[in-house]
Amino acid sequence: MEALEEQLSHLNIAKRSAMKDSATYILDIDVSESTEEKNCQTVAILCSDKTIRLYNKETMACLQEYNARPDVLSGVRFSHTNSNLVFSACSNATVRLWDARVCGTGAVLEFTGYPSNVFISFDISCNDLVVCAGTEKVDDDAFLVFWDGRYTPDTGSKEPLGAYSESHNDDITQVRFHPTNPSLLATGSTDGLVNVFDINENNEDDALTTTCNSDSSVNIIGWAGRDYKQVYCLTHNEGFLWWDLAQVDTEEPITLCKVEDIRENVSGYNIDYLIDGVYHKKQDTLLLLGGSHNGDISLFNCDLDKVTHVRTLTRGHTATVRSVYWGGEDGSLITGGEDAQLLLWKPKAKDLSPKKRDSLKMASSVQQRVRLHNNKSFVTKQK
């Protein structure tokens, strides 16, 4: 804990990049995998104006822009094996692939879904072999749709390999493949469930191995712990749950930590909402990031049955922070929000923080649906 506090205490703003349009929100961030050219990593951001923009991580200079109008994009992810390839889910029943090496702003490949699909979440397996996207609920159906993720030029489009349709009964807000095991997939939904699948199984019933109930509407999920045997969940009513899947078949408790509302659990700190969770692999620590509508970002260390404040980052953003990316290799943090700013925080960087100015934006008017559930939080083993 002391080593973590020491590292985070030295985070300062190293680079600042502002959008041309001050009304543009930064909704999602991803960074290309480290290669032999570590100093040439690329940052991809998803913007509220339906664009994807690529930046040089070290200089924060804009390299490329892709425009998806009139379709709405959801999420942005780099290929794990090719830093030139960027994916995003689309409201027109497609997942699109963009190639930074190709001139123009059009997608080089479309993964087409079923006609009624509106994709609101997606991910790519760690070996790039499978793409999976989650849909909004249409009629009584919410789908997880799968494709062969391999890219060859001039393919044009790909049809689905198949879909799961029975495991969620509402909007599928999160799809997250395991960081090292390409067959494991975790999903979250506004139905309150976090499901874990082994997609190597032949059918959906056999593939569903574990179900965790969040008691609420799932906003964000992620993998954590040594060998990534844990799953955490952030809910739309600012709750936090953390489960250990390694304990499913034992008599040990599955739930490591449950906080129904982070705002009531961290008195003394100005927290209006949860932004994300990040697993600090070197410290074997799960961190929560919470924000205030004036742009401050607070970092909390997760422990059994409690979260502990570590540090608050100030004088950076001036409005709601929507997205973060933790750079585990160099300890950097990239943040973006409703003030149209993209910030790179690095340990011991020369502080570029300006004097705090008043926000030109009001608190976020984009309110996520919150669905409360009466059932008690539980975890069930499906097989």
Which tags fit this structure?
single chain, 383 residues, mainly beta, Methylamine Dehydrogenase, Chain H, five-stranded mixed β-sheet, five-stranded antiparallel β-sheet, 4% helix, 46% strand
Give a structural overview.
The protein is mainly beta and 383 residues long. It has a domain at 24-213: Methylamine Dehydrogenase, Chain H (7 Propeller), CATH 2.130.10. It is built from three helices and 30 strands. The protein has helices spanning 2-9, 204-207, 262-265, and strands at 11-18, 26-31, 42-47, 51-56, 62-67, 73-78, 85-90, 94-99, 109-112, 119-124, 130-135, 144-148, 156-158, 162-164, 172-177, 184-189, 193-198, 208-213, 218-224, 230-235, 240-244, 255-259, 273-280, 285-291, 297-303, 306-313, 321-327, 332-337, 341-347, 379-381. Strand 4 (51-56) and strand 5 (62-67) form a beta hairpin. It is globular, with a radius of gyration of 20 Å. The protein starts with a helix and ends with a strand. The model is unreliable at 355-376 (pLDDT under 50).
Give a concise summary:
The chain is mainly β and 383 residues long. It is built from three helices and 30 strands. The strands form seven sheets. A five-stranded mixed sheet has the order 6-7-8-9-13, with no helix packed on it.
Q: Kindly report the spatial arrangement of strands forming the biggest sheet.
A: 6-7-8-9-13
State the helical fraction.
under 10%
| Beta-strand content bin | over 45%
Instruction: Compute the CA-based radius of gyration.
Output: 20 Å
Count of helices? 3
What is the H level of CATH, i.e. the homologous superfamily of the domain at 24-213?
YVTN repeat-like/Quinoprotein amine dehydrogenase
Mean pLDDT: 88
Class per helix and strand makeup: mainly beta
The third-level CATH topology of the domain at 24-213 is Methylamine Dehydrogenase, Chain H
- The name of the CATH architecture of the domain at 24-213 is 7 Propeller
Number of strands: 30
Unreliable spans: 355-376
Q: Major β-sheet, in short?
A: 5 strands, mixed
Question: What is the global morphology?
Answer: globular
CATH class of the domain at 24-213: Mainly Beta
How far is it from the N-terminal to the C-terminal residue, by CA? 37 Å
